[in-house]
Amino acid sequence: MSCDLTIIMYHYVRQLEHTRYPAIKGRRTSEFRFQIDYIKKNYNPVTVLDVVNSVRNGDLLPEKAALLTFDDGYIDHYVNVFPILFEAGIQGAFFPPVAPVRRAELLDVNRIHFILAAEQSHERLCCSLDEEVLAYRKEFSLQAPEEYRLEWAKPDRFDIDETVYVKRML
Fold this sequence. Notes:
8 helices, 2 domains
């Protein structure tokens, strides 16, 4: 028995090549199915209740415990994810944003995802942002674009520097 927990977070799970935004960072349904098979063979999937009981009551989680989470309430989760999890006998934790769903509004983070997926050259997006900063610099007391780039254009484990810059600026 162990207290270690691996949390595996998902967003988009869809047939990317058949969507309006095939370049969006997501997981193809076939890749997700493969990952579920891998998780079943190499981890012990747990439920949110298992995790809550571990935190509240000190219940031990099994070795190599894994919790699957799904953010933002995409239709992908209902149409693509749920049947695969059901077939595999695994539960996931789903976190839809209530207010935007009720109002049928797009989350800002999703707007950024779609912008990044629609433009192959993230450097071109950076240059457009820099131009906007220059255009409104005096009116809004903005820093020079170079200063923003120095501060925010730093790669992380998921994205190159240009992509991070666009995300942070937007």
